[in-house]
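Hello forum,

I keep getting stuck at the same step: I have a sequence, I want structure tokens, and every attempt I make locally crashes halfway through. Rather than fight my setup again tonight, could one of you with a working pipeline run this one for me? It's a single chain of 137 residues.
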Amino acid sequence: MYKNILVPVAFVDGNEAKIKGATEIAQALAEEGAKITFLHVMEQIPGYAVSYLPADYSNQVRKAIEDEVAGLADNIDGAQGLVVEGHSGRTILDWAEENNVDLIVIASHRPGMQDLLLGSTASQVVRHAACGVHVLR
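Reply #2:
Ran it on my machine without issues. Output:
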């Protein structure tokens, strides 16, 4: 059983079932009183694309994502939801190390040839995590 579990989440179409599955796995693997953190990493919008977006687009999107992540955490005792900025794979790994996470539960999309066996973010996390990683496919 684990005491400090990180569940990285991405809000993309069709990902609801994977988020639900990752949540269930995290709860099943958590010992009593464990901390579960739902983490969404917002990657920077490329400069060439920013000029085509409304002025407050980033703030609106961040607020919507913060509400979604908080909603996930509201349903579980001892859970929290966070939104941070950075590169998804590296930021997940850094956050897990800085916060003494002992398990990461991460969903992986159906891979293409470039990903071989795991999605690129999940692959990076599996290869470089200093803690246990449970991949949900």
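The first helix runs from residue 16 to 29. If your local run keeps crashing, start a new thread with the error log.
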